[in-house]
Design brief:
Length: 464
């Protein structure tokens, strides 16, 4: 029986181009603080014409295999989670097979999983389940979460972002799944969806989307608590986990979500809520569920009550989502990467609860148990390989005007064929993949920026 199946290694990639939310506020004529305080965002990463979800994934996977010295022949399953549609039939996974074909490994199971921001979690569960099952052939699983989140001009635009995260899955992992403690909520809702295949932009009902998120959070938490109690014989509360990691469309929703869990614990009369907090929340104890989602006063008071707990249990997870934006499937794992970056030396022996949400609607809350692990698959090495701080520092800020111009070009290019990009990779780090052209048959070609002035893999997908 395989033990402690989970995440052995991680790598994160986000574009080197970003725009400051404060500058965007001014440019959009929004009231001061609307994006920075109202949404809780600092900065937004985005792809220029030379980057897309495939190039970001190629970069993340290649980097992970190299930095942890993993033989590509040792990958037996590869799953991609994404909601960025490049092709309605051909999976992103097939593009990534170029990396493995070079080493003669085409025996790799798995395809893409799609449902808004939840696809990465579905892919992750599939890989974990595969290794825990009788289908497992002894090799590693690999999960890629990749998205480029872009919105039409207007109030939703500052909630964009872009990234790819690769995770290596196997037994004896420093980041192990507590698979028994898992609660899901799945239902039918039109909160955010992409029915117009001619456009990259979604249809969003902002208010409904926030309520759907909180309803899903409540129900997932309820199911997780029930399972914990069944197996442990005692109730679960927020004090039973060291950190909470949330899918982060924007940071303000993360603040509201954690406050909601504090309120849930209060309603359940949990020991995690002290007397002072009980007193402040008491006036809301008679609210119906429906009323509680609409109550501005409850929202405000629960956030005040939760503040010190939020600072301790959630704030360390918010760095990358606040700096890069909503990365859709990669968002929750970028939040987890932030936690590893900030706290890797203190995480051994700790339980982390994650909440993954995808509109339309799919959600799961699940539990991880962390151990330091053995090099190269150790928490400290994962943090140093991801090198989050340096990656954030080395980015290039675009002016809002230049950002808007880039968005216009990308809009025009979406679904287009027969064009060559600028191939300008001056801002990209060595080893980064980039899009060079889309030919008359819509076939996409990529090149890799040379490492140390030697052309490496120059031939990949560039077979002209």
């Amino acid at each position: 029986m395989t033990k402690n199946v989970g995440i052995l290694a991680m790598e994160i990639y986000f574009p080197p181009t970003c725009v400051q939310q404060e500058a965007l506020e001014a440019h959009d004529g929004a009231s001061k603080g609307k994006y920075t305080i109202g949404l809780g965002q600092d900065c937004m990463g985005f792809c220029t014409e030379v980057e897309d979800v495939i190039s970001m994934s190629l970069t993340a996977v290649t980097s992970l295999l190299e930095k942890y010295s993993v033989d590509p022949k040792q990958i037996g399953r590869l799953e991609v989670g994404s909601e960025t549609v490049i092709d309605k039939s051909k999976s992103i996974k097939t593009f990534l097979m170029q990396i493995f074909e070079k080493y003669g490994n085409t025996d790799v199971e798995g395809v893409d999983s799609t449902n808004a921001c939840y696809g990465g979690t579905a892919a992750l569960f599939n890989c974990v389940n595969w290794i825990e099952s009788s289908s497992w052939d002894g090799r590693y699983g690999l999960v890629v979460c990749t998205d480029s989140a872009v919105y039409a001009e207007g109030p939703a635009r500052p909630t964009g972002g872009a990234a790819a995260i690769a995770m290596l899955i196997g037994p004896d992992a420093p980041i192990a799944f507590e698979s028994k403690y898992r609660g899901s909520h799945m239902s039918h809702a039109y909160d955010f969806y992409k029915p117009n295949l001619a456009s990259e932009y979604p249809v969003v009902d902002g208010k409904l989307s926030q309520t759907c998120y909180l309803v899903a959070l409540d129900l997932c938490y309820k199911h997780l608590c029930a399972k914990y109690e069944k197996f442990e014989g005692k109730p679960f509360s927020i004090s039973d986990a060291e950190y909470f990691v949330f899918h982060s469309p924007y940071n303000k929703l993360v603040q509201k979500s954690f406050a909601r869990l504090v309120y849930d614990d209060f309603v359940r009369n949990s020991s995690s809520i002290d007397e002072a907090a009980k007193e402040k929340l008491a006036p809301f104890s008679t609210l119906s569920n429906e009323e509680s989602y609409q109550s501005r006063d409850l929202e405000k008071v629960s956030q005040q009550v939760a503040k010190s707990l939020y600072d301790a249990k959630v704030q360390p997870t918010t760095l990358v989502p606040k700096q890069v934006g909503n990365m859709y499937t990669a968002s929750i794992y970028a939040a987890f990467a932030s936690l590893l970056h900030n706290k890797n030396s203190e995480l051994a022996g700790k339980r982390i609860i994650l909440f993954s949400y995808g509109s339309g609607l799919t959600a799961t809350m699940f539990s991880l148990r962390l151990q330091e692990g053995q090099h190269p698959f150790s928490l400290s090495n994962i943090a140093s390989v991801m090198n989050v701080g340096a990656k954030l520092k080395s980015r290039h800020e675009f002016s809002p005007e230049k950002f808007v111009e880039t968005m216009k070009l990308m809009e025009h290019r979406y679904g287009a064929k027969d064009f060559v990009t600028s191939k300008d990779c001056s801002l990209l780090a060595p080893g980064t993949y980039y899009l060079t052209e889309v030919d008359a048959m819509y076939r996409r070609f990529y090149a890799q920026k040379p490492v140390d002035n030697t052309i490496e893999n120059g031939s990949i997908a560039n077979g002209h």
